[in-house]
Design brief:
200 residues, 5-stranded mixed beta sheet, alpha/beta, UPF0046_metallophosphoest, Metallo-depent_PP-like, Serine/threonine protein phosphatase, globular, 6-stranded mixed beta sheet, 5 helices, Purple Acid Phosphatase, chain A, domain 2
Length: 200
């Protein structure tokens, strides 16, 4: 069993980031499911706070920052693995990650989005029984906005049904923070910025 500290959508909230740093030593792995900054601004400062974490850490970009921006910001954070259409084995556990807003958001040019077709390609290599870290939730699971609309990704849902991850960690839809759902036998956690501990 490994103890994961899962979070998402810090959005430049340095109080929340510092609280995660304080909790990280009690976890075996830290998992961040994107949106570390706001509208592509403030990423370096937020990662500067989070990079005090020495615990092995898996991150995916949200739609508030791109993969390249996140990898550049994390260049000197030795504990971290930045994933997007890629995987890593951390402390003996297989992780696979996909970032960005999926499907494409209505937020305009600042939002770093991925189409469903692109997401399907990026998820093609996702292995069975991994921990899937996705910024966007799967369709019809922890993906309801404040008006009750389901805004999640069909490509992510298809990948979950195909590969049966041991856990899915996501964020993006703020009104579903800290909620869990299931697809088949897989638990899906919309983590939120306060952080949720989960054992796998």
């Amino acid at each position: 069993m490994a103890r994961l500290l899962c979070f998402s959508d810090v959005h430049s909230n340095h109080r929340a980031a510092r609280a995660l740093v304080q909790r990280a030593p009690d976890a075996d792995i830290v998992v961040g499911a994107g949106d570390f900054c706001d509208m592509r601004r403030g990423l370096d400062r937020t990662i500067g706070v989070l990079s005090e974490i020495d615990t092995p850490t898996v991150l995916v970009p949200g739609n508030a920052e791109s993969t390249d921006e996140l990898r550049t910001a994390c260049a000197n954070w030795e504990a971290t693995h930045v994933l997007h259409g890629s995987g890593a084995t951390v402390s003996g556990i297989s992780f696979y990650g996909i970032g960005g807003g999926i499907p494409v958001t209505p937020f305009g040019a600042w939002s770093w989005d991925v189409t469903e077709a692109q997401a399907a390609e990026l998820l093609a290599d996702c292995p069975d029984d991994a921990v899937l870290v996705a910024h966007s939730p799967p369709n019809n699971c922890v993906d309801q906005d404040s008006s009750g609309r389901h805004l999640g990704s069909t490509s992510i849902r298809d990948a979950i049904q195909r590969t049966t991850p041991r856990l899915v960690v996501c964020g993006h839809i703020h009104s579903s923070w800290e909620q869990t759902g299931t697809i088949g036998t897989t638990t899906v956690l919309n983590a939120g910025p306060e952080g949720v501990v989960w054992e796998v």
